[in-house]
Amino acid sequence: PSLEEKTDWQRTETFDSPLSNDYWQVWRRNVDSLAYDEGELSFIFATSTPDSDADTEISYARTLPMDEDWQVVLDDIYAAAGLSYFNIELELEIASPEFECELSFEDYGDGRQFAVYIGQQLPSGNWEYASAYVSANEDAHTSSGGNVRIVHLASNRELIFEYQPDGASEWSELASLNLTTGVFQGQYNSSGGNFTGGLISSTDHRMTVVIQAQAGVATQIADLEIGGIEISLALAE
Description:
Layout: E1 11-13, E2 24-27, E3 33-37, E4 40-44, E5 55-65, E6 70-79, E7 86-94, E8 99-107, E9 113-121, E10 127-135, E11 146-153, E12 158-165, E13 172-178, E14 184-186, E15 191-192, E16 206-215, E17 224-226, E18 228-233
Antiparallel strand pairs: 1-18, 2-5, 3-4, 4-17, 5-16, 6-11, 6-17, 6-18, 7-8, 7-16, 8-9, 9-10, 10-15, 11-12, 12-13, 13-14
């Protein structure tokens, strides 16, 4: 059968109804589920431990062009006050050359933080990595959750990773990566160096989008949730 390229890659989800099968595919254990409650999407884990690999992945059925400006936003990320060993993650990937970046709200037992992790495989097979995070030590509002977004600017081939804590009116930059030069700049608690630039093409490559949630304990409705997903053209502010 012939393949049809889908160009309708923009999409907004408010969770007033279940995710469309035309745009999303959910990967989870049979014992886990998603719950739609008053415009929020809850991740329900039946059983889990901090050392388990239990997670739920929501894959987007479109890919994002690298020759246009766009943004991917996760709105209203929330984790119940007593919840630890969790993350809610926005992940963008390219299959070849293998590239992945993850922007998350997380707590792995050392406190809540917004974090970005980036990895890129070189033609030699070796990997380059960089990361940055902001915790309550730098921004006291991080413990409440909030919004995260990844912005792609085609004109200067840059990915910008931003967070907006609950109650904040402005976005704050956590890190940026220039795809041409490979320069990585983390604003807080950064590690790793710059990347080899120029491996990702503006015309030959497209980004895939995955939303992922993990929890180290069993969860119920409203324990771990998000309030929206926006995949759209990036607008100047």
